[in-house]
Design a protein that fits this description.
- This protein is α/β, with parallel strands linked by helices and about 260 residues long.
- It has one domain (about 10-245): NAD(P)-binding Rossmann-like Domain (Rossmann fold), CATH 3.40.50.720.
- It contains seven helices and seven strands; from the N terminus they run βαβαβαβαβαβααβ.
- A seven-stranded parallel beta sheet has the order 3-2-1-4-5-6-7, sandwiched between helices.
- Strand 5 (about 130-135), helix 5 and strand 6 (about 175-180) form a beta-alpha-beta unit.
- About 45% of the residues are buried.
Length: about 260
């Protein structure tokens, strides 16, 4: 038996990276997965790879009409909706002084407004199903700042805060809402973008307790746990997947560990 047997999930940004890894693992754990994205060819290919347990739908997380179209269609097709993973996100690096406002607004719309629209859209179906689980993918940059990422960091802090509010508002309906905070997911297309081409990832991660970058599948395992009944008493919480980066400052040479 899988951890998600009989459950129906929507995963945003599921065409690649962490979203695709989550979709594959959800299906392997017994869920029916609806992959949504704006990259139709990539998303459809992942759904085809998954097989009968995977279905692809076009959905722009910034568009309320898309949510209003897709969520009822999922409920009608499968009879229920149990899980939402708000995974879609974008990033562009620029200082506060040089950030184009169009880029700022685009990141806020995708990273912050998108999860809000998703939570609003799935509330009624989850109430009808008797409960559910919402997992909002924030970031380690939703816990601390990073130069050059004012829009990304601001939007991910917002996701962290919205998660707590939703947990308080939705809890009486049996709906759990948690946030996941990955660090160092550079194997994804976001982590490999041109903005990060000059970053020496080896030097960044060399001194943390687990001295390597994170992997999409490692985040997916955390998301599966939070989606499952194993996490039945977890809500309004932050789950960090960071290789120990946030445990404290690393000072090479201070002691031999």
């Amino acid at each position: 038996m899988g951890q998600l047997d009989g459950k129906v999930a929507i995963i945003t940004g599921a065409a690649q990276g962490m979203g695709a890894a989550e979709a594959r693992m959800f299906a392997a754990e017994g869920a029916q997965v609806v992959l949504v994205d704006i990259q139709d060819d990539l998303g459809a290919a992942v759904a085809t790879e998954i097989g009968e347990a995977g279905v692809y739908e076009h959905l722009d997380v910034r568009c309320e009409d898309d949510w209003a179209r897709v969520v009822p269609a999922v409920e009608q097709r499968f009879g229920r909706l149990d899980i939402l993973v708000n995974n879609a996100g974008i990033n562009r690096v620029a200082s506060i002084a040089t950030m184009p406002m169009s880029d700022y607004y685009d990141m806020v719309a995708t990273n912050q407004t998108g999860p809000l629209l998703g939570m609003r859209a799935v509330l009624a179906p989850m109430i009808k199903a008797g409960g559910g689980s919402i997992i909002n993918i924030s970031s380690f940059n939703g816990l601390q700042g990073l130069p050059g990422m004012v829009a990304y960091t601001g939007s991910k802090f917002a996701v962290r805060g919205m998660t707590k509010v939703a947990a308080m508002e939705f809890g009486r309906h049996g709906i759990r809402v948690n946030s996941v905070h990955p660090w160092g997911i550079v194997e994804t297309s976001m982590g490999q973008a041109e903005d990060f081409s000059q970053v020496d990832s080896n030097s960044i991660f060399a001194n943390q307790p687990i001295a390597r970058t994170g992997r999409a599948v490692e985040v997916a395992r955390m998301v599966v746990y939070l989606a499952s009944d194993q996490a039945s008493y977890c809500t309004g919480a932050e789950f960090v997947v960071d290789g120990g980066y946030g445990a404290g400052p690393q000072i090479p040479g201070l002691i031999e560990a």
